[in-house]
Known about the structure:
Blueprint: H1 30-43, H2 51-68, E1 75-80, H3 82-93, E2 99-103, H4 106-117, E3 125-128, E4 145-149, E5 151-152, E6 157-158, E7 172-176, E8 193-196, E9 208-213, H5 215-225, H6 237-245, H7 255-271, H8 273-294, E10 298-300, E11 312-317, H9 323-332, E12 348-352, H10 359-376
Parallel strand pairs: 2-3, 2-4, 4-7, 7-8
Antiparallel strand pairs: 1-9, 5-6, 8-9, 10-11, 11-12
Helix pairs in contact: 1-7, 2-7, 3-4, 7-8, 8-10, 9-10
Amino acid sequence: MTPKPSELVLPPDLIPSDGRFGSGPSKVRAEAVAALVDAAPGYLGTSHRRDGVRSVVRRVREGISALFQLPDGYEVLLSNGGTTVFWDSAAFGLIETRSQHLVFGEFSSKFASVTRNAPHLEEPEVIETGPSTHPLPHASAAVDAYCFPHNETSTGVMLDPRRPEGATPDQLVLVDATSGAGGLRFDPAQTDVYYFAPQKCFGGDGGLWLAACSPAAIGRIERIGASGRWVPPSLDLAIALEQSRLEQTYNTPALATVFLLAHQIEWMLHEGGIEWCASRCDRSAEILYGWAEASSFATPFVEKPDERSHVTATIDFDEAVDAPALARALRANGIVDTEPYRKLGRNQLRVGIFPAVEPEDVATLTHAIDWLVERLG
């Protein structure tokens, strides 16, 4: 008789040192939590317009600039609401008339939907493929912004963010880096707005967005802000720019999120910066995809190796393997959040392999899956 998933108990050597493999919220390092506890008496519950908090915001902005090695003139903006809110802000404050979108998953499609429904914008140009690969942008005189993700979190497809050949200097490149920022290499000069939230590679909570903006993007924000276009103040990028330069947000942020973000950035810089982070993710991806390619019952969902994400990996399973049951068995053993993105609807697991995740834990996960599949029948 096949045992229930909850009845299978992994041997101790098949349990990772940390069982959190979520694609967001992601693993938060214990050291960051401990540092927050130590700082809490003089930090939590204090004014976000005083230096006790503004100094932490300053650490975040300066840390992001150093981590990404931003070119001269680039500025780091931040405000409340997460990436979903930033799409609304971009529709108001970065896109003048019409945008081009690459769509190859849930989150890239959502941003395209935002601009499609914005009454002050023209119908966007949408280039779409199936979810296991990605299209490429092409220069178009009809648009003033090119929009695509660095990493499509829902599918585990990554795209090297580059300015389309033939694009003019006044056309902006807006890159959704929510799950890629901090774990994937990129050339910031190829982007005008590289925006993200802290609950993935940056090991914090959600509810905040950050954006590394080029001088051209800053100019666009200031020009639209002065144009008379109505924008709700909480979504106004001109206000976000002004407040970020003051090392604060327009309205009160979640102070714990800001602190955890600052701590993670400084840990990344201490360990070796973006190259160290990306190399660590490369190692985890090599372990996981190598295991899937050698497996008799698992395969990488993304066929082209250079498109397979090194931060959110998706693994398909044969029909003989019940992936939801496998995920339940893993969860019963403290290995959590390996379920696939719900709307993708595939018999697969999705594994967050962000910089905070130990590559050795990824290897242990693969051995645990082998053990469980054998016993689940």
